[in-house]
Automatic annotation (TrEMBL):
Broad class of enzyme this protein falls into: hydrolase
Record-given protein name: Nucleoside triphosphate pyrophosphohydrolase
Protein species of origin: Halovulum dunhuangense
PANTHER family registered for this protein in UniProt: NUCLEOSIDE TRIPHOSPHATE PYROPHOSPHOHYDROLASE
Swiss-Prot/TrEMBL GO biological process terms: dATP catabolic process; dGTP catabolic process; dTTP catabolic process; dUTP catabolic process; response to stress; TTP catabolic process; UTP catabolic process
UniProt EC number: 3.6.1.8
């Protein structure tokens, strides 16, 4: 009896086991019908969702959940790699090997002879230089090429702005960014009086884009800031519901003025 193989004929070593499970699920003869039908495109939304669930667990310091969420995210990588192997493109080992070599290449101060005596900021700058050299080696490309279209819009805006800033296309004074916000807000106010939905959406997008720019100049991650505000809104609205429930009511039974007063009361309690 092979101690390295279980009763299902699967390896016991965790990573090999997961890869083998995915191969079994995708087996056209004896696999799972749902898994067999999936494609890169159909699985991609789950991949994004799992990444956000990892971020959510970290945001809530729910470290008891983090292990499971990381496993779910790893499964997504294994899933895509398995489909690529079936298509004769690459397999999971190739994915793991590529990223391992990338980490070695991009950390010459750890795996090479460069000095480790540098700040975290300098290390980030060196990382970006290495990435730029890698892109240059791949052939001619525009400054903004390679910023994934599938990224969440706020994150993609931030990455686009950082790329442009590297070549000097950036404000040097945050006051200029604030002035631009005022300008864009006025433009949005003007078009909102009209009935052209495309112009309204366009100006609204411009305002969001420059808000991301302000966050970058302030050292604020716009995605993290909005998640924080979402959590704050959820928490305070829950306090409204709890206060009304204590009176045998629901938000639909209360006036806006009542809910606003409860909101401010919740806000005051949070601030101590």
């Amino acid at each position: 009896m092979n101690k390295d193989i279980d009763e299902h004929g699967l390896p016991r070593a965790p990573m090999a086991r997961l890869v083998a499970i995915m191969a079994r699920l995708r087996d056209p003869e004896g696999g799972c019908p749902w898994d067999i039908e999936q494609t890169y495109a159909s699985i991609a939304p789950y991949t994004i969702e799992e990444a956000y669930e990892v971020a959510d667990a970290i945001e809530r310091s729910a470290f008891g959940e983090l292990r499971g969420e990381l496993g779910d995210l790893l499964l997504q990588v294994v899933y895509h790699a398995r489909m690529a192997e079936e298509d004769g493109l690459f397999d999971f080992d190739a994915v793991a090997g590529d990223v391992a070599e990338k980490m070695i290449r991009r950390h010459p101060h750890v795996f090479g002879d460069e000095s480790r005596d540098k700040s975290a900021e300098q290390q980030v700058q060196d990382w970006e230089k290495i990435k730029a050299a890698e892109r240059a080696g791949a052939g001619p490309a525009g400054v903004l090429d390679g910023v994934a279209l599938g990224l969440p819009a706020l994150l993609r805006a931030l990455k686009l702005q950082k790329r442009a800033a590297r070549v000097g296309f950036d404000w040097t004074d945050r006051r200029d960014v604030l002035a631009k916000i005022v300008e864009e807000a006025h433009e949005l106010a003007e078009v909102s009086e009209g009935t052209d939905p495309d112009r309204i959406e366009d100006e609204f997008g411009d305002l969001l884009f420059v808000m991301v720019n302000l966050g970058r100049h302030l050292g604020v991650d716009p995605e993290a800031a909005l998640r924080r505000t979402n959590a704050k809104f959820t928490r305070r609205f829950a306090a409204i519901e709890a206060a009304l429930e204590a009176e045998g009511r629901t938000p639909s039974d209360a006036s806006l003025a009542e809910m606003d007063a409860l909101w401010h009361a919740a806000k005051a309690r949070e601030r101590g």
